[in-house]
Amino acid sequence: MGYAQGADGGWTLDPDTQVRERLDYLFDCFRRQGVVRAVVRELKEQGLELPTRAIAREVYGSLVWKAPTLSAVIRILHNPAYAGAYVYGRSEYSNERRSPKTGKASAHGRSVEQWPVKITAHHPAYIGWEEFVKNQERLRQNWNHAESRGVPRQGRALLQGMVYCGVCGRKMSVQDRAARENRSPSYICGRGYQDGDEKICQSMTSRPIDAAVVEAFLGAVSPISLRVATQVLDQVEQDLIAQRRQRALQLEQARYEARLAQRQYDAVDPANRLVAGELERRWNEKLERVAQLERAYAQAERDAEWSLTGEERAAVAELSQDLPAIWSAETTTNQERKQLLRMAIESVQLDGIRQAGQIEIQIHWRSGAITDRVVKRAAPGEGSLKTPEEAVLQIHEMARRSSYQEIAAHLNRTGLRTAFGRCFNTQHVGYICRRDRLAKGKPRCVSKSKDALDSSTSIGT
């Protein structure tokens, strides 16, 4: 797709402008997003379809537009023909790997360096050969396996895909926790255990490690004059122009097909109702398609109406100099923070074995520099939620002269809350009094309810 056979038998770019520009837009979208699913998501959000050739016998080879799919985008990105290259031998067959059903040798792909036949600049290209090779490596790195980083995902472990064990050298995995647990994720080196070792190599909570790496990152990047903000704004404007162009081409094609259907309907003999009825139905379908695209185009134009004044651009440029503020902003997601770290950091090695109670951190920057840090290993319960210290102090002061109910009412009036942000009740107060051995004075109790006297110790501080 995207090419046509020339008069001399060679390949030329497809004469259809919409086909060429849609493929250009797809490659540009992957250049910006770097993730195939993000490309498919953007194409669907913009209502843009991908060109393909029909394989049905009656209409074989005709141009067909279909909704973008993950497999279709992957096939285009993996196809070296779009880089202007002719290749042979992208797959090889091994006698050791055969289908259990048919007995045929199974094919598995070769790397670009192992292709036996590779002729670059063979025909006009949509992207350069260097970019194609870079895209293959980028796609390989998006796989979630031991030799690659994987795609940055949502999650609180900021070093996901970049952290390696400083003891055995293997890539460490992330153990996430449920949101309701309010616990930090952990970095675990468990590959050796999976391969038969007696135990895992090491594990540690991510909280102090991430804090140390982020501190080093912000300290290294903040002094640099960041001109990214204005470049991003310019890129957004260019993206809006490109999206508008794609929607306009799609609408123009739909209008052409509607006019063509109308001409076919006008050319038929009205008395031949069998043919005229079918052509009228096709014409109506094309008109409905045009109306649908016009509504989508109008809605997209309304959504894309935005502009920045000179003062607003200056404010954005000033904010770009304060990377810590951008990093800690509520609108910045963990996925975006991971992408920022990956721009500057190649990998991070952790060793929590050599020094007892300490974790040695070695940051490998993309520039080739190495930064060493040592952090204290988190103690059990160090990061757990606790009752505010002020509330505990007031409970200590009032325990010998007030009832649990009176103490709870007083804490609630002063605006204090439990570790989980709830209002205090007799159970919370009673637990703290028994834990800190304040109940020996036998504080008077207004209510001797079971809840006040036998509260469970499962109420955490």
What's the count of strands? 15
Helices and strands: which structural class? Answer: alpha+beta
Beta-strand percentage range? 5-15%
How does the overall form come out from the CA principal axes?
extended
Calculate Rg over CA atoms: 32 Å
What is the name of the CATH topology of the domain at 1-85 and 120-142? Hect, E3 ligase catalytic domain fold
For the largest beta-sheet, the strand count, sense and barrel status come to: 4 strands, mixed
Averaged pLDDT, please?
82
Count of helices?
15
Low-confidence blocks of residues: 440-461
The first-level CATH class of the domain at 1-85 and 120-142 is given as Alpha Beta
Helix content: 40-55%
Strand order within the widest sheet?
9-13-14-15
Q: CATH H level of the domain at 1-85 and 120-142: which superfamily?
A: Putative Large Serine Recombinase, Chain B, Domain 2
Write the layout of secondary structure elements.
Elements (H helix, E strand, L loop, with lengths): L2 E3 L5 E3 L3 H17 L2 H10 L4 E4 L9 E4 L3 H9 L7 E3 L2 E8 L6 E5 L7 E3 L9 H13 L21 E3 L7 E3 L10 E4 L1 H4 L7 E4 H16 L6 H40 L5 H31 L6 H11 L2 H6 L5 H11 E7 L6 E8 L4 E7 L12 H10 L5 H10 L12 H10 L14 H4 L8
Helix pairs in contact: 1-2, 1-7, 7-8, 13-14
Report on the architecture of this protein.
- The protein is α+β, with helices and mostly antiparallel strands and 461 residues long.
- Among the domains are: 108 residues, Hect, E3 ligase catalytic domain fold (Alpha-Beta Complex), CATH 3.90.1750; 87 residues; 65 residues, no CATH class.
- The protein has 15 helices and 15 strands.
- Strands 9-13-14-15 form a 4-stranded mixed β-sheet. A 3-stranded antiparallel β-sheet has the order 10-11-12.
- Helix 7 packs antiparallel against helix 8.
- The longest helix is centred in the middle third of the chain and has 40 residues.
- The radius of gyration is 32 Å and the shape is extended.
- The two termini are 64 Å apart.
- 16% of the residues are buried.
- The C terminus is likely disordered.
